[in-house]
Known about the structure:
The structure is a single chain. This protein is mainly β. 12% of the residues lie in helices and 54% in strands. The chain has an eight-stranded antiparallel β-barrel with strand order 1-3-4-6-7-8-9-10. The termini are far apart.
Amino acid sequence: xxxxxxxxxxxxxxxxxxxxAEPVEYEFDMSHANIAFSYNHLGYSTTDxxxxxxxxxxxxxxxxxxxxxxxxxxxxxxxxxxxxERDAHLKSADFFNVEANPTATFKSTKVEQxxxxxxxxxxxxxxxxxxxxxxxxVDVNKMAEHPMLxxxxxxxxxxxxxxxxxxxxxxxxxxxxxxxxxxxxxxxLIK
Length: 191
């Protein structure tokens, strides 16, 4: 009798235990998302810019962050440095060569949790038709139920620095900085 009760208790415990969370897809809230960049201009100033048109897929596994992933595709024609002539030059073959390479992409290959709210996301960054491994340093700002939409949401800031010369864009280096800082601020909601 005791063996039968123990078997029933074990079976009940196994089947009533909460299931482990699985990876969940999130959708970027484009009204609260921005991909920005900046670089040093001749030592005199910092020039800022952004990409206004991009899309992405974000998959989050809260229990096993290493199973999470992100993919982003950027329309390079959407570059905006707040000066039309500069935008046109950056789209030319001197830099992004947008006619031949209309998009840039980032596809994660590895996600590591380095602190409670910090991740390192390694991935393949392709710009101007050239791919380099790049690491995004990610601060998770908040992960909770959205107070207005009443569904799970996440907000984060991701940063990295790339050398534009590694992507075939060495015009004016070293006078105009080779290093370009990239900052992604985004909110995403569960699909």
